[in-house]
Structure formats: C-alpha cells, structure tokens
Design a protein that fits this description.
mainly alpha; 3 helices; transmembrane; DUF3618 domain-containing protein; membrane; transmembrane helix
C-alpha cells in the first residue's frame, strides 16, 4: 500500500486502539520530526526551493533581498577585518 503524498511522514495514523501501537506510532512520528529538523541538507534544499519560488513570484524582491544580504555580509566582513587590523 503506497503512502498518501498529502500526509506528512511525521503524522500519527488515526484509529489506532492498541495503546502500545499508538505509543510506537507517536514515537516514530516524533523521531521522524526530529530527523527532519536536524537534517541540514534537507533544510537547505527546502530553503533553496522556497527562495526559487520567491524569485519566480517576485523577482524585484529577490534582487532586493540578495543586495541586502550581500550588504550585511560585506559589512560584517569589513567590521571583522577592521577590528583585526587595529
């Protein structure tokens, strides 16, 4: 039986009456949720997809965000270099 793509992996199935099976299902869902949150490559992949979607929907906003991020990173690098030089 194939899993429904609309239901997240971290969902607890409905209708489990056995308390042991229910506890196992809840533990499995909790562990999958923890794994999803701590998996850095997956989080970066999700963020990249959201950034691409944002850029497609709002290209001017994406350019403004990129310029803002570049300015902040440049400012931090400049501040660190200046503090090291002193």
């Amino acid at each position: 039986m194939a899993a429904d793509p609309n239901i997240p992996r971290t969902a607890v199935p409905v209708g489990i009456v056995d308390p042991v099976a229910s506890a196992r299902a809840e533990l499995k869902a909790a562990l999958l949720a923890i794994e999803d949150k701590t998996n850095v490559p997956r989080q970066l992949q999700k963020a990249g997809g959201r950034a691409r979607l944002f850029a497609q929907r709002n290209p001017v906003g994406a350019v403004a965000a990129a310029v803002g991020v570049a300015a902040v990173v440049g400012g931090v690098v400049w501040a660190v270099a200046r503090s090291i030089a002193r």
